[in-house]
Amino acid sequence: MELATSPLLTDLYQLNMVQAYLERGQTEIAVFEFFVRSLPNRRGFLIGAGLQQALEHLETVRFSSEDIAWLARSGRFKPALIDRLAAFRFTGHVHAMPEGTPFFANEPLLRVTAPLPEAQLVETALINILHFQTLIASKAARMVLAAPDKLLVDFGLRRAHSVEAGLLAARASYIAGFDGTATMMAGKLWDIPLYGTMAHSFIETYDDEAQAFEDFARSRPDRLVILLDTYDTEAAARKVVAMVPRLQASGIKVSGVRLDSGDLVVLARSVRRILDKGGQNEVTIFASGGLDEDDLMEFARRNAPIDGYGMGTSLVTSFDTPALDCAYKLEEYGGVARRKRSTGKASWPGRKQVWRSYGTDGRMMGDVLSIEGDSQAGEPLLQPVMREGRRIFPSPSLAEVRSRTARELRRLPERLRRLEPGIAYPVHVARTLVDLAEEVDRRLAKQEGGYDQTHHPRRHRHSLDLGPPERLLRGGSPSGSGRRRDRPHH
Fold first, then answer.
1. How far apart are CA 104 and CA 9, in angstroms?
2. What is the CATH number for 236?
3. Strand, coil or helix: what is 440?
4. For position 469, what pLDDT does the model report?
């Protein structure tokens, strides 16, 4: 997919800082990490998504001649910076959790290791790409867990916040386990299965609803689904039953009917009775109309005879949680661990790794967050994916990512799978990482007290040499706790 790749899709302050970095010679290796500070109240876990688009952006990001000319005309930046930007290429390393991995607060989903100006310049785009798809994949995963064994289709393009948002929502929801989308472009780009029925407008153009049904059926006989609720839902269901023999004589099969308004449980039961009485037991019932995962769980509780759902606005806007408190923060520069100490926004310093442990049943038991190079039990989650600005291996297919996500959702603790509120997955912060945070704080306290130790801080291992991706992957961890993890001292 060709996302906009211009580096001008950034914030002004990124270029302001890059100019200052270059003038001051601050071009040593920096380490930034993307993470979510805290989980929203209605999210017991998040699903990482958007890695493929993030890596595509890093590989292809360039200032065009038009970009450079506009920057020069703006008068905001010095000629030396303009010349450097004209030759800009991302040359750093990237480590990341594979797409479809569940993750929790303060766990880095992605780490960038690159010369400081490069790592800084790509911040805005990376946050934008990773935040949105992670937001939607996490919402979609809740819907998948709320309606197991039901057909789920993305219907949200028309109410997405942009056409690109709607398109990427189709991708993110498919990763999370949706069966398909109504968005044609998603089918073209990623071979996501396409689903579509009909709108009320088609039926309204006829004075005879039954004739509208039959004309549509003969025009679009493949996977035929008839919309019932334009006028009287039960009467429409009887009309469908009456026309089935005529359609069957022409080799046309009615696959399903769709409900889009009213008390969907009551109507679904009534329609099911009408269809079954008319011998149409195989005709499915599909529902849509402003649904979210709470509705899906309620329909399951009431044993509604609904076979599938079209999810729209709630999905593509993540209506209950429209944003994540995510960040892309400097954790190391020039081999020295760094961290932010702002109240409510403190970060853990250094290059970090997450180790995940599993029980004998294969379910996730807990994570450990520590510095890279530490030795911890469990499976390390961050993997090398890019070296010197190029992907180390081809990105997995969307089908492979979707299969991996399904496996990961099966490995969630049962209470998270049931979407129970207030469940904290255990994430332990290792003593090694706590010690590093305290060391950084002592160093900063001495500097604030008038002591200049800028030439003598302890340098983090791997700080000067990016090294092979295998060596960069080595990392440590301790253990912490779920939604509210211990934070570094402020």
1. 28
2. 3.20.20.70
3. helix
4. 31
Cα 211 → chain centroid: 44
pLDDT of res. 454: 43
**Look-up: residue for tokens 């009887």?**
238
Cα 132 to Cα 185: distance, rounded to the nearest angstrom: 18
Q: Which domain holds residue 51?
A: 12-136+322-480
- Kindly state whether residue 317 falls inside one of the protein's structural domains: no
Report mean pLDDT in 10-residue bins for the chain, 490 residues.
71 97 97 97 97 96 95 96 96 98 98 98 97 98 97 97 97 98 98 96 98 96 95 98 96 97 98 98 97 98 98 98 97 97 93 98 97 96 98 96 98 96 94 96 84 43 34 31 39
How far are the Cα atoms of 48, 200, 246 from residue 216, in angstroms, in the given order?
A: 41, 12, 14
C-alpha 169/C-alpha 192 separation (Å) is 12
Handedness of CA 456, 462, 466, 467 (dihedral sign): positive
Residue 297 token pair: 């769980």
The answer as to whether 191 is a domain residue is no
Describe the crossing of helices 79-86 and 12-24 by its angle, rounded to 10 degrees: 100
Residue 357 to residue 419: CA distance in whole angstroms = 21
Give Cα 214 distance to the centre of its chain: 41
Task: Please tell me whether residues 232 and 347 are part of one structural domain.
Answer: no
Phi, psi of 385 (to 5 degrees): -125, -15
Question: Rounded to an integer, what distance in angstroms lies between the CA atom of residue 368 and that of residue 433?
Answer: 10
